[in-house]
Every structure is written in C-alpha cells, then in structure tokens.
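During the no-cost extension, the postdoctoral fellow (Dr. R.K.) reprocessed legacy sequence entries with the updated structure-token encoder. One reprocessed record is reproduced below for audit purposes.
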Amino acid sequence: MTNKILKIRKELLNMQSLIVDNKKFDGKPLSEFLYFNFNGLTKNTLFKALRKKDIRINDVKVKENKLIYLGDKITVYIIDNLLYKNIIIEKVYEDDNILVVNKPNDLEVTGNNSLTSVLEKEYSYISPCHRLDRNTTGVVLFAKNEESLNILLNKFKNHEIEKHYLAKVYGIPKVNFLKLKAYLFKDNKKSLVYISDAPKKGYVPIETSFTVLEKNIKENYSILDIELHTGRTHQIRAHLAHIGFPIIGDGKYGINEINKKFGCKTQELCSYSLKFSFTSDAGILNYLNNKKIALKKELLFQ
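Re-encoded structure tokens follow.
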C-alpha cells in the first residue's frame, strides 16, 4: 500500500528531465546545476526533495547533493510552482515582424527556463537576434518570423544596428569620451574572457566606446553610455575592468570590496537602446530604418 501511495504522489508531481551539456557543470554539485536551471528553486525545497528521493541521476534515486558530470541525465519530481518564478516580461515595442522586451536580471536569453522559453508560450514563432548576459538587464530584440530573423542577423553582422548600454562603474575617467581597441580571449572552461592591449594567438579584436554621462566625485563612480562596435562575450565588463573602471556589482570582473560598499550583488549594466541604422536594403523591415527603441535612462540605477 505504501509503495502504491508513493507512486501516485510522484505521478501528481511535475517531472522535469535535463541533460548536463555545459562543461561548467562537469564535476560540480547537483545543486549548482539545478539552481542555474530553475530560478525559483530554494535550498529548502531542494534538500526536501533529496530526502524524499524525488531527484534522480541517470534514473538512479539520490538523497545527497552528489557531483554530476557531462552527459548525466537529471530528473526532478517537483511541482513547477516550486521550480520557477512567475516571470513578467515588459514589452517595449512590437509590430508584425519584431518584438523588443526589457529582460530582467537573473534570466538567460535562451535555454531552459529562459526569456525565449517564456515568450514561446505566447508566440508561435519567436527567435532572439542577439544575447545579453544572465545578469545584464535591458532591451532584447526578437524576430517574429524567419524572414525578419535572417534580415536582422545580417544587419547585426554588418553593424547596421547600434546597441547602447548604461553602466555604473567605479572610478572617474579623465576624458568624457573614449574609443577603446583591444583583443579578447575566451576561456570556455573557466567561463572567463581575458583582455590584451596587443594581439596574441587566439585573441580576437574588440572595440568599445564610452561617453561619461554622470560623475559622482564624493562616491567615486561614473555613469557611462557605452556603444558596442563588436559583440564578444563579456566584452563590456572585461574591457572596462581592464582599463581600471570595473562595473559595480560585477562578481566576475569587478572588485568584491567595492561591490559590498555599494550593496550590489549583480552588475549595474543595462542594454538601454537599439537604433536601426540601415545602410543597405532591409526588405520587409525597411520601415524600421532610423528608428530608435530605448528605455528611460532616468529610471535606471536608482
């Protein structure tokens, strides 16, 4: 009778099955993988599920926070309400071909439980045209049909769409405008990038420019308007840290003591505007040329 009751209880629970396909979780605790994939999962819920053997690794029930490895299959019997936060996405602009939304913090653009997966519940076709880091907020452009996607990917590739970011950095630049050129290397194993002022093997060229919008001498920080001329992983965060102006709240490239001082646990970086600056035919999207879509700067970093 007890086994029958347990079987019925598990059937009533939602079942989620994931494959460990990211190298950064190879040899890491199960909890780290689950917290990453389920943004509503708490420590209390996780360890309660382990005690009840509601989590399996490769179809074997586990009751401890074991290490996992690439290729492992993780099955979780926990109701969705305890796995996912109720995510509300702000729509900034929409027409028949594109959608621009304001991505919140602590959310990947693609993957399980991502910005894209949330939008897929509403749209029959939706595809992101660019990415933001998990903890970078701001505007993300989506295509609502394949023709628009192909056009927009080509426009990003040819630098015909301007992307501007706002960043709160520690320190005050000596000049109000600066265009930076350097070289970036991506270390996939460590999920880090490295910046060099001189070309090196494996490094790719990057360009980043910034304009100082605000200076706070007393607290020694600045608000920068940043334009990306190349779009590499962690480019803004690593490039600014390289020249001595780390983004406040950045736990990877910033300074922990500074982050604590300002009480910031995630980077103060926001993609606040997109401008379509087409120099060639854009087909069904020609109507977007010279259009700017932006968040209100005065509402950010308050």
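The domain at 2-83 is CATH 3.10.290.10 (Structural Genomics Hypothetical 15.5 Kd Protein In mrcA-pckA Intergenic Region; Chain A). Helices lie at 2-12, 30-37, 43-51, 80-83, 115-120, 146-157, 235-242, 256-262. The remaining legacy entries will be reprocessed before the final report is submitted.
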